[in-house]
Amino acid sequence: MIAVKGLRKTFTTHIKEPGLAGSLRALVKRETVTKEALKSVDLEIQQGEIIGLIGANGAGKTTLVKILAGIVHPTAGEATVLGFKPWERNNEYRRQMCLIMGQKAQVWWDLPALDSFLLLKEIYQIDDRLYRENVEFLAETLMVKDHLKTQVRKLSLGERMKVELMAALLHRPRVIFLDEPTIGLDLSAQKAVREFLKSYQREFRPVTILTSHYMEDIKELCPRIVIMKEGSFVYDGPLAEVQRMLGDEKCLSVTTRERTFKFTIARTELAARTAEIFAQNDVLDLNIQDPSIEDVIESIMKNGTAL
Amino acid sequence: MNWWRHIAAAELRKILAFRSDFWVTFIGQALVQLLIARALWQSIFAGSEAEVMNGFTLEMMTLYYLIVPIGQKMLTGENVGFLSREIYDGTFSRYLIYPLSFFQYKAITYLTHSAFYGLQLILIFTAYNFFVKTAGFSTLLPGTLLFLMAAFAYMSIAMIVELLSLWAENIWSLMVLVRFFCLFFGGGYLPLTFFPEELQRVLVYTPFPYLVSLPVRTTMGLAPPNEIVHGALVLVAWAIVFYFIAHLIWRRGQYKYNGVGI
């Protein structure tokens, strides 16, 4: 369904020294920097799979999604989605995919959502019966029936996100790109969106790529994760595998009269190290925990390895 | 295919979404412009003690300056920045995701705005003529149609400039400059009969007089039929040339689009 090979993307941006002198100099000569947003990445995703794309800001997640959605052209490499090169923007491809960006509205702000849906119905050439079914199913599942006649700009962030989801899924896409769909939402709205995505995935089995900074999204939705660091993949595999990595490690938090210190050690060394700590320090408190999945992923993002 | 009709309808609903803005745009602006034009030219005519200035009586001049602002709004459709703004803030991405040509989408939304102002032109012209009887009604429709054609040509010119935002970080001044050129040399600020004859002769070979002057003169019944037909053909030719250039620029510029923004 999605096959990516050696995909690269570089961006050139202008830079300017701070201050008035820098501004004056930039009027005559501007300096540029080239940033490699994607460094030759390979990826394969099958029908019905949902993968979580994780990485720090600027890791290249959104760039990859934008290339696969056909918004941005790659600098080099190959990618096909449903057999199409996304950046050629074949209408046949665009009718089968959707992109939802948590930070950008795609429905028309000045119109009620139903007006936007009617327009999308024509753009995607959705037949009347399917359109009615989809609006009903999505509105019911997302619980936004009462908000569809309100101007989108007057909706709350959570309601707007749900309307965005509805608009993007009206044509039942086979490929879904979700770029931080829960950003800025409160906890209950995040949960509702996650539940919806889970049930949608179960029902229609699209290929889904999800980027998110919220680990809850990833843990709930993505059996497979890809961790990105500075434009490269540093981990591509099952989330369960990351969870298994936790099994060999323990996190210790030790409080003495002077200070509190935390460190991670191998499970096999636990007894010996604990005894050693007690022997060498005046210990007030000692706490032993499994490292959280967030800790492992953060470590992979920082160091390229797990803990 | 109905999608273009639905895009136009959605755009129209957007225009009608804000009640007070609608009435101010539709009626208020025209009344203010009428009063200013009337007061200004009344004093100019009084000062010169002439009945006719460069082919215009006071009544005709008032009508000219009533039509021109509405015609300008028809020309500029969605207003300055209709593409570049979306390129800079990244909302342009939506046109690349939807299974349609963004050129066609933009042309439809643009011309919907123009058509809305066309309706305003018809109503205001009719109301003015009802009281003052300066011109006939037979040329109102051809004049409005010429304005719509001019709007398409101007949109193509504007698209060329706006698409330069794929390369440059700010093109506001350029957009304003091009708009000023089109309106000034098109007769948008002063009827072209006030320009030196040499300049008028040169301007015929540019698209400018066909953007404003010809549609206004046609609406007022001042342009003979052969000039209207010739002007319409010239407008179509210019529109095709500019539209083609805009396509070429997009073909190159799309590699520069990175979809970032606010």
In terms of topology, how is this protein built?
The complex is a heterodimer of chains A (307) and B (262).
Chain A: E1 2-15, H1 19-28, E2 31-45, E3 50-55, H2 61-69, E4 76-81, H3 91-94, E5 97-101, H4 113-123, H5 128-142, H6 157-169, E6 175-179, H7 187-204, E7 207-211, H8 215-221, E8 224-229, E9 232-238, H9 239-246, E10 249-256, E11 260-266, H10 270-280, E12 283-289, H11 293-303
Parallel strand pairs in A: 3-7, 3-8, 5-6, 6-7
Antiparallel strand pairs in A: 1-2, 1-4, 8-9, 10-11, 10-12
Helix pairs in contact in A: 5-6
Chain B: H1 3-16, H2 19-48, E1 52-53, E2 56-57, H3 58-76, H4 84-89, H5 93-97, H6 102-132, H7 140-163, H8 172-184, H9 197-203, H10 208-211, H11 213-219, H12 225-253
Antiparallel strand pairs in B: 1-2
Helix pairs in contact in B: 1-6, 2-3, 3-6, 3-7, 3-11, 6-7, 7-8, 7-11, 7-12
Q: Care to describe what's here?
A:
The complex is a heterodimer of chains A (307) and B (262). Chain A is 38% helix and 30% strand. Chain A has 307 residues and is of the alpha/beta class. Chain A has two domains: 2-243, P-loop containing nucleotide triphosphate hydrolases (Rossmann fold, 3-Layer(aba) Sandwich); 248-289. Chain A has a six-stranded mixed sheet with strand order 5-6-7-3-8-9, sandwiched between helices. The longest helix of chain A has 18 residues, at 187-204. Chain B is globular. Chain B has one domain (3-253). Chain B contains twelve helices and two strands. By secondary structure, chain B is mainly α. Chain B has a two-stranded antiparallel ribbon. Chain A binds chain B through residues 11, 14, 66, 69-73, 89, 91-92, 94-95, 97-99, 101, 104-106, 108, 110-111, 115-116, 118-119, 121-125, 151, and chain B through 1-3, 5-7, 10, 13-14, 17-18, 90-91, 93-94, 96-100, 169, 254-255, 257-259, 261.
